[in-house]
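Weekly structure sync, notes
Attendees: PL (lead), two postdocs, one rotation student
Agenda item 3: pending single-chain targets
PL asked that the sequence for the first pending target be pasted directly into the notes so everyone works from the same version. It is reproduced below exactly as submitted, 311 residues in total.
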Amino acid sequence: MKNSTGIKIGLVGMGKIARDQHVPAIAGNPAFELVAVASPNHKLEGFPHYPDVASLLSAIPDIDALAICTPPQIRYDIARYALERGHHVMLEKPPGATLNEVRALVELAEQQKVALHATWHSREAAGVEPARQWLANRKVRNVIVTWKEDVRVWHPGQTWIWKAGGLGVFDPGINALSIITRILPGHLVLRDAELAFPSNCEAPVAATLQLRNEHGTAVRMEFDFLQTGPQTWDIAVETDDGRLLLSLGGSVLRINDDPVMQAPDREYPNLYARFEELVRERRIDVDVTPFRLVADAFMCGRRVVAAPFVE
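Predicted structure, written out during the meeting:
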């Protein structure tokens, strides 16, 4: 690490997730110092701004790490550029546009002996780890995931999400996949999928997935990007010892309808605490399991045509 006192970090991409989550998480972690931003269109008041990653690294070659918060379609070239120059890299979810891109980045980070962290922020929700521990000693019978939100609220004007590689409804849906692949034992495989594509878009607005693991556990997932009013991020698990419910994206845990815990959002602070460990030890933490299931859905799912999407 080039800086012996703290981790100097830059943000690449200054969209909604960077402003809402990365900036405050960095500010709240004394191990990190935000020193610059690279974004073609958006600035962050009080910090040096560069139009792209090459300009940033040319101006500040001793920066330690970059958090890449761009749309996934352009993430690979940016991450590769940084890794080739010996910088540690944090990747927003999904970690890339394709599985091969991510594999190539892992190999490059191994060669360069630098940290690479593919983040899954929903796994850091307060109820996820207690849910995993509770389920570990019980027989899971079936799982129903309902993940429905309003794209106009969470991604206003973000046309990239509707283009090839932008994932559409799987941008939030992959959060649910990141949780169930963490809390359920065994390996989930896709058995059936239906993806609804607006007639004017290259990515789905809704999807239904059927998965199963080697223990016979059935998982049904319903994703919708057009939910209005209250948003729904629920995972209901039926077991031989009662029912577990994770709601509000994993921040609320109930077992047999009794509240077990509800905690404030610490997802991104937890990610940066983990990234600090990886940087100090020059290690890699990249799990593509949720991303692989999304790829399977795109490869094997039936495509149906939905009404055009209008912002």
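Discussion points:
- The two ends are 44 Å apart (CA to CA).
- The mean pLDDT is 95.
Action: rotation student to compare against the earlier draft before next sync.
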